[in-house]
Structure formats: C-alpha cells, structure tokens
Specification:
The protein has 133 residues and is α/β, with parallel strands linked by helices. It contains five helices and five strands, in the order ββαβαβαβαα. A hairpin with a 2-residue loop joins strand 1 (4-10) and strand 2 (13-22).
C-alpha cells in the first residue's frame, strides 16, 4: 500500500492524516511538495498524523527531515502525532527525536502551536544543523 495523505483543519492547524507505508517512491516524495503547497496557501502550522502508517523506511525518514527543514526555514512548524513504536525507535536511533516534537494526544499537539513554539522550533533546527548530526 502506498502512502496517502488527507488534510483537515482544526484550530488553525492543518492536520495531514497519513496512511499506508512511507517508503522510497513517488508518493513519499510528493509529501514534501504537498506540505510546501499547504504552507504557500498560508497553512503554516502542520501536524502529521501517523496513526495509520504501517511502516517508515530510511527514505521516508529522509522526506520527513527534508519537509521539516523546508517548512521551518520558511517560518512554519511541523509536528508529529501518533507515531508507531517502530518510528519512535528510528527517531531515537537517528537522534531525530531531538528535532521533531512528537505527541500522542491531538489536543496537546494542537496546543503546542503558538508563537513561542515557532521560536523554539527555529532554535531546534539551528541547533540540530550546528551539531552536524
């Protein structure tokens, strides 16, 4: 099953409900484009909901990082929701858990989007890039 992404809007945040497998291929490659397109439409706060994602490989992880960096550099925020145990392990193993804000609760994730969060996200990206991880 390929990766599918359906968007919805809650409290000023665009939530992309993802389903399928986030692996090397056109569907995964197009996710970053969809996120950037949403940003260009004025949707600067984006939450990726992984509840129905069954697998993420290194290419999928790379797309997540690429999308995060592209959005953050433009002033947006990208957070993750409902990551699987496998994805949480990958994030920890690659130290990307220090970069992404990950939530298990949608209400908490939505509350994290604010101007203080914007500043913190920008700082986290700068620190991550400075470490050369």
């Amino acid at each position: 099953m390929s990766l599918e992404a359906n968007s919805r809007h809650v409290a000023g945040v665009t939530i992309f409900d993802l389903s399928g497998r986030m692996v090397a291929g056109a569907e995964t490659d197009s996710l970053r484009d969809r996120l950037l397109h949403a940003f260009e439409r004025g949707e600067h706060w984006i939450l990726l909901n992984f509840e129905d994602v069954t697998y993420v490989d290194s290419a999928g992880l790379g797309e997540m990082v690429s999308a995060y960096a592209a959005l953050t550099r433009r002033g947006g925020i990208l957070h993750l929701l409902n990551v699987s145990e496998h994805l949480a392990h990958l994030l920890a193993l690659t130290r990307l858990d220090q970069l992404f804000d990950v939530f298990d609760d949608q209400a908490a994730a939505l509350a994290s989007f604010n101007s203080a969060g914007n500043t913190r996200t920008q700082r986290k990206l700068a620190d991550y890039l400075d470490r050369g991880v």
